[in-house]
Amino acid sequence: MTDSDTPDWIALGPHGPGTLACAMKGGRLVRQGCFDGEAEAVVALGADGLPAVRVGAGAGDAVPASVLPRQGRQVPPMTQPEPRDEIDGWARLRLAGVVAARPDWDGVICLVSDTLAQWVHVSAGEAVSFQGALTGRLAAALGSGPEVDADAVADTLSRPERLAAHLRAATLAARPGAVSGHLIGAELAAARPYWLGQEVIVVTAGDAAAGRAAALEAQGVPVTRADTDQALASGLAALGRALGLTG
Questions:
Q1: Bridge-partner residues for 44, per DSSP?
Q2: What helix, strand, coil percent values describe the chain, rounded to 5?
Q3: Residue 127 contacts by C-beta under 8 Å, 6 or more apart in sequence?
Q4: Predicted confidence (pLDDT) per residue in 10-57, tens digit
Q5: Considering only CA atoms, which of 142, 96, 114, 122 is closest in space to residue 198?
Q6: pLDDT per residue as tens digits for the range 138-185
Q7: Which of 27, 133, 173, 222 lies 20 to 30 A from 11 at CA?
């Protein structure tokens, strides 16, 4: 590791069964990884004795709330009592990364992971409300494919009450792309109040946004795609600036 890559602060917190840690040099992400625990992460990233930001720590901030946390060196989740939902600390940082370049923007950010899609209405740097869907988890359980059948999206978007029947037919026909399409169609139907008449930014890894973005564009929605890792790096940089850790 060169001097230019020697971290001067670290962000770390629970992620799945372990700990995700990000070593920062000012506002630049220099190393990251998943570890069994915090102690291992600190040693592996050469961050012993450095300022640490705990991601996922602290009492949750109920929306409406500033996307960029304001509780010192911690990034608590954002919570919503009705309908009950939660955005974890790492997802909150991704939101902050998208918002950092759009301080006065009003629109919707859709955060997509392997298991979950979360639709977040953002206005002037605040999360106003949000809604989650376990689309990814259902897709994995049903053996969906990476391709998304546009006709299947349209069928279930217009008739979401027929989702179970549509999935049965797609499964029998061995059409994994149709399974993906029906699930996304149902998600879009449930999230219609979020995307209708809004600009949407879909945040996910690689080309995984393509099917959901295409489905929104087919409804006349202006869509921008953003990368999950880049959003996290930008969110950490914004957090570092807010905490005075970027020099």
A1: none
A2: 40, 30, 30
A3: 63, 64, 65, 66, 67, 78, 87, 95, 120, 121
A4: 999 999 899 999 999 999 999 999 999 999 999 999 999 999 999 999
A5: 122
A6: 999 999 988 999 999 999 999 999 999 999 999 999 999 999 999 999
A7: 133
